[in-house]
Design brief:
Length: 270
């Protein structure tokens, strides 16, 4: 058997050495079971550091040390590895892993290789627990990616209502515009996420904003046949006579795309 101890004297559940071909495999197990980040783990045996390829022979008493990256340069290998692991935790909703990494000093506003913050990744994937954890750690709510999009926009686009609610409660800018002048309400309207659109409207998101083509949220909903969202927007007093850059109103767009029920709704008012 393998016995693993923390510096505090806590012993983790013993495991069979036969289950793990090397130290790296044991680290993966400790990550999955306890949430200890792989990038921060150091396994020691009789005072010596075990490399990932080190074979494990029972019986062995091992000491598990979790590193901290506070004070390390962002270019440090361990710091970069930890940041990549936090990005992965945000995508996969690994709350325990994310918590350990934040406590170890990983910056809440660092970005992945695509320029997305950890909060954007959690929001896009609908991971409420990790999103809340990042907000509690001081993550900035309105940072933009390369397209000017924020965490709230991603949550709205993909229909993650509870993440949208958490971001709004934390003070995220509901009327932020991206590089194409689109808002979170436009993303929800385009994607047909009725509950998210209602939540944004209850938060008094602006309905008259126009994107680079002159389209409002109502026009986008109309063009895609989103009847319930169009109804919500009209109830919120969205202007239905605004025209896009080609002179088309929401009713015209609904008719043009064959959405007659939406067109009738717009012509009637509500």
């Amino acid at each position: 058997m393998l016995r693993v101890w923390r510096p505090s004297g806590q012993e983790l559940a013993p495991v069979s050495a036969e289950e793990f071909k090397d130290a790296a495999a044991l680290k993966e197990h400790l990550r999955e079971v306890y949430g200890f980040p792989f990038s921060l783990q150091q396994l020691m045996h009789e005072g010596n550091l075990l490399e990932g390829c080190a074979e494990l022979d029972a019986p062995m008493d091992l000491q598990l040390v979790l590193l901290t990256i506070s004070g390390l340069s962002p270019s440090d290998k361990t710091a970069r590895f930890a940041e990549a692991e936090l990005a992965d935790a945000a995508r996969r909703n690994c709350e325990k892993v994310a918590r350990y990494l934040l406590e170890a000093g990983v910056g809440a506003d660092r970005r992945d290789d695509a320029g997305k913050t950890f909060l954007m990744l959690a929001s896009r994937n609908g991971h409420l627990e990790v999103a809340r954890l990042l907000l509690e750690a001081g993550a900035k709510k309105d940072l933009e990616d390369g397209c000017g999009q924020t965490a709230l926009m991603f949550a709205s686009w993909y229909g993650h209502r509870e993440v949208v609610r958490a971001l709004l409660e934390a003070g995220a800018d509901k009327n932020h515009i991206d590089n194409q002048c689109q808002t979170a309400l436009m993303f929800a309207s385009t994607s047909g996420h009725v509950k998210v659109a209602r939540l944004l409207l209850e938060a008094r998101a602006e309905t008259y904003c126009q994107d680079m083509c002159g389209m409002t949220a109502l026009m986008q909903a109309a063009a895609r046949g989103q009847l319930e969202i169009a109804r919500l927007l009209l109830e919120a007093r969205a202007a239905k006579h605004i025209a896009d850059e080609d002179g088309r109103t929401a009713a015209m767009l609904a008719s043009e795309h064959g959405h007659q029920e939406v067109a009738r709704l717009l012509e009637a008012g509500v």
